[in-house]
Design goal:
Chain lengths: 346, 346
Amino acid sequence: MSRSIDLAVIPGDGIGQEVVAQGLKVLNAVLPADVKLETKEYDLGARRWHRTGETLPDAELDALKTHDAILLGAIGDPSVPSGVLERGLLLKLRFAFDHFINLRPSKLFPNTATPLAGRPDIDFVVVREGTEGPYTGNGGSLRTGTPAEVATEVSVNTAYGVERVVRDAFARAQARPRKKLTLVHKNNVLVFAGHLWKNIFDTVAKEYPDVTTDYLHVDAATIFFVTQPERFDVIVTDNLFGDILTDLAAAVTGGIGLAASGNINPTGAFPSMFEPVHGSAPDIAGQGKADPTATVLSVALLLRHLGYEAEAARIEDAVQADLAARDGSARTTDEIGDALAVRVSG
Amino acid sequence: MSRSIDLAVIPGDGIGQEVVAQGLKVLNAVLPADVKLETKEYDLGARRWHRTGETLPDAELDALKTHDAILLGAIGDPSVPSGVLERGLLLKLRFAFDHFINLRPSKLFPNTATPLAGRPDIDFVVVREGTEGPYTGNGGSLRTGTPAEVATEVSVNTAYGVERVVRDAFARAQARPRKKLTLVHKNNVLVFAGHLWKNIFDTVAKEYPDVTTDYLHVDAATIFFVTQPERFDVIVTDNLFGDILTDLAAAVTGGIGLAASGNINPTGAFPSMFEPVHGSAPDIAGQGKADPTATVLSVALLLRHLGYEAEAARIEDAVQADLAARDGSARTTDEIGDALAVRVSG
Ligand SMILES: CC(C)[C@H](C(=O)O)[C@@H](O)C(=O)O
Ligand SMILES: CC(C)[C@H](C(=O)O)[C@@H](O)C(=O)O
């Protein structure tokens, strides 16, 4: 294991700045003294686009490649046309660095508000495919802006892309106590993509006889997310279904303020990128109201990915303890970051 | 208004048979004596497919066209390969009869269990596009079954198709007390389809200055469905997002046993089709356990579509009263149907 971490930091827009500062604070506090942490900040996002018109120039894409990992806050602002930063920066990074595993754990921590009555036990992880599906940018518009316009979006699914994410999900399921993997798709309507996913899922399943498997249509899955979330252990699904399900998962486990994610390239060919699931929340930006916990938990995923398992677990324990100790009084972004930094260095 | 109803009935599979019987029972009970009801049953679904290999022969499609409306129970059985009956029967009907309005009201009735703590006020309707999006069957698979397979699904969106559903949704929003319409899409990623939807939505909005408008990405919408469902009045969205959101809506308003839907062609060129949102539930079929309320509420939508507003309202009031009077003891499918039939004829 390398005893140095060379981290690229993209604070981005809105609350991205504030939460990333806390993520770095906790990262510094948790790392043993002999681990050298180097960070380099990249000025990317809405301000940069307004100033220069650039989203992610090649030089910066190349520079980002040289780091061990990337920590990203949030991208997006209402002043930028929808899609410009998403496609030109966030998705560009996920695709350029082949982040085919979009890892999104969901856990209902103690003392955390959930909109669900009866507080079910929730502890599952969504393995969302990150480089295919309707996210590939394959689509177009004909006779744009006229009454005869036709706009298409193509979901692209390959055996290559599906197999690698399905294999990763089986391995993760096997490593967890319950060893259960649910494939979510919509193979009764999206029959071509659906059959590809299901066939590969069933084939790989034979190599994991100890993993219990299940299949749900995406519409039915949303029902179980609110009526019976305890039935899920590991979920594997496509890029768009994963996007939808993980926001819902965040909502039922106490809100998007706690949802962490990793855009992972398990081969190590490119740096993986860790970010909270939430957006830039311009309405509360700059007011110290943002909960940095999702970013701090993303730092835990980052550490685990780089081989710092003990430090990752220490962060997760600190979050758990911090949430359990909450008395309901409002804390600023900074105060939450401080409290977590104290706990991890304890 | 015609004083006769010529109804096609497709009970379909599993609990479809049982719930449709109750729907017809209540329909018979609610209709004034001078309205002549004629029904013709069509044997379509899994059994038919097993027997003859047919899903929906042309002769039957032509015959179905001649009716005033269609009442459908549920289609699908695990013994039939996924997609065969969905594409070959259910979606074939929606597309052949140009059911471009898929209407799905969601209401949290009194005395009804919801998985949501705090019982928010829920009363919204989803206007789901029914003839485009990723449901068009445009897609394919290359090198099927090999490690080099590529499978695509194309979401097709036209100005023609989007404008008519958006107009319908604005008119519905304007007719409701709160006059609010939310467009749900994912225009930061699906930029071509998303811009088409958003542009048409914004253009039509100018004709409805008294309707408050809102836009949400589909992932964010799922969050609000569980944290703040009271914010919704009318929602307009594409075929796939509508599919996902209406199952979630059903779940938060007391379950799929209460969710009604209409596949409507407002031009009257073809018969509209009414069906519960739930599926054929083979696990509980034939046991008298299915709740026929969703089908009975679908009959109310059917009556409203045919101009029998008073009778539609009487059914909805009966359901409301029946749910309010529940004491928690289990009732059979038949008992619920009987209770509703008594209430509407009262
Ligand atoms: C901002 C957007 C492009 C992104 C996505 O759709 O993947 C976000 O919703 C997420 O889940 O990370
Ligand atoms: C059965 C299936 C084809 C259908 C759909 O996806 O539309 C169902 O889920 C629905 O919502 O009516």
